[in-house]
Design brief:
By secondary structure, this protein is of the alpha+beta class. It has 17 helices and ten strands. Strands 2-3-8-5-7-6 form a six-stranded mixed β-barrel. A hairpin with a 2-residue loop joins strand 2 (89-104) and strand 3. Helix 13 (309-340) packs antiparallel against helix 16.
Length: 411
Amino acid sequence: MIRPLELFVALRYVRSRAGGVSLITWLSVGGVALGVTALITILSVMNGFEAELRERLLSLSAHATLTPAPGAAFDGDALARRAAASPGVVGASPFVEQQALLVHGEHMEGAMVRGVDPAREQSVSLLGEALVGGSLDALRPGAHRIILGRLLAFELGVGVGDEITVMVPTTGEGGELSPRIRVFKVAGLFEVGIQDHDSGLALAHLGDVQALAGDSASRGVRLRFQDVFAAPAAAPALAAALGPGLAARDWTVENSTYFRAIRIEKTMMTLLLLLIVAVATFSIVANLVMVVRAKRTDIAILRTLGLAPRGIVGIFLSEGVLIGWSGALAGVGLGLLIAYHVEGIVHFLERTFRFQILDADVYYVTRIPSLVEAGDVSAVALLALVLTLAATLYPARRAAGTEPAEALRYE
């Protein structure tokens, strides 16, 4: 417990100008503040990009999917109705998927052809908002219409109204390959800003894909939950409740590669930026060591007047805490200010220096998003406080070890 006398002496030492101590004190405060500011800003931007990626991924992906065991009887319509009536589920739609080869003239591209029910698809994805050409209403059973990702259409050299040939590999009774072929007319284009979707996904009516692919297609029910973060826990429980033989996969599993990469980048950026705080803590150590050397006589007098070594430790712990925690609090305030206004700051820099950070011709995301999470801010602040507190231990113990007789010998 730090007493008022120790805190008073520490404040006097913080304002000390002896031997360049004041300059090092301000450099220490500034270093801690800079490190904390950079950490909060970068983590908020990384959170923003993660949220943007999640939103784009889930624009055409369901929160979870239920699939039957191979060879098991499956009624997609009935299962979708039962799932939609379950608590926490806001949408359910049956689907069929089959890898296929799309051909137009001399162009050939592989893609996943997904059969959907247009009426129900709106409840599990944002396909209607992702359309950049054509209409979802064109997907009618037997009409053989298809909606392509914009990049996929570009690779095939087609637009709305053009015809493409869809070939699905199937195996005959003798084991030989006998592809099924069907001509589809392009009824629309979509773009979500994710290459896997825009260049590798095509959507058609559920009945058309089922008729083309037959029993070789994958089938199941796509789900949308009221809370996207509840899907990892709710999907397996729902699968177990709806009947045996159902397997559940949620969006965190299906898109694990993307989010794992973001977590790795976030961790590495945190470790690198922590070096700024670490350097600042070393400057706190240097500052306190200089104060101890400059105040040896004062320490000896305080010891002679009856102040115990514990009191000396309290003085220098208080000084280190004042320096480090002032920097940490200033860094939190400045970091939050930048994180909440990062888009405005970026626009100002782009207008002032006439350059674009995220070029629309190169990147799908042309703005720098920011999402401040209280957990990240608290963790950064706590880590900075712990590091700066740890930096005071060695100088404080060294000051407490000062011998009054030795320090006052030549005074």
